[in-house]
Amino acid sequence: MSYDDVEIEDMEWNEKLQAYTYPCPCGDLFQITKEDLRLGEEIARCPSCSLYITVIYNIEDFLGDNNRKKQENIESSKQQPIAVA
Predict the structure, then answer these.
(1) Rounded distance, CA 13 to CA 57, Å?
(2) What is the mean pLDDT of residues 35-43?
(3) According to the lineage, what is the superkingdom (predicted)?
(4) Does residue 50 contact residue 43 with C-beta atoms inside 8 Å?
(5) What is the CA radius of gyration of the chain?
(6) Dihedral of the alpha carbons of 14, 15, 20, 21, in degrees to the nearest 10
C-alpha cells in the first residue's frame, strides 16, 4: 500500500536528478523519471526509506511524438472500412 496518491502536477521536475520529485516524510524525495512514466510506471520511490507513492498522471502526456503517431495509426487502421465482394 502506497504512502499517498500524488498528482504529477503536484510534483516538481528536478533537473539535477532528471526526475519528478515529491517530499518524503523522512526528509528525502520520492523520485520517478520521465522514462518510467512513458513505460506506464506509477510508483515513485524514496531512495532513503521504504515508502513509495502512487503518481496520478495521463500516460499520453509522456508518450513521444513517434509513439503517439504509431498509436494514432493503429487506431485509425482499426477504423478503416473493408469492402467485401
Answers:
(1) 14
(2) 94
(3) Eukaryota
(4) no
(5) 18
(6) -20
pLDDT at 38 over 70: yes
Map grid coordinates 510508483 to a residue: 43
Q: Give the neighbor-by-neighbor strand order of the sheet with 52-56.
A: 5-7, 52-56, 43-45, 29-32, 19-23, 12-14
pLDDT value at position 74?
A: 45
C-alpha 57/C-alpha 64 separation (Å) is 15
pLDDT at 62: 84
Residue 46 CA to residue 29 CA, distance in Å, equals 6
Are 58 and 14 spatial neighbours (Cβ–Cβ below 8 Å)? no
DSSP class of 61:
G
Residue type, 64: G
The pTM for the full model equals 0.73
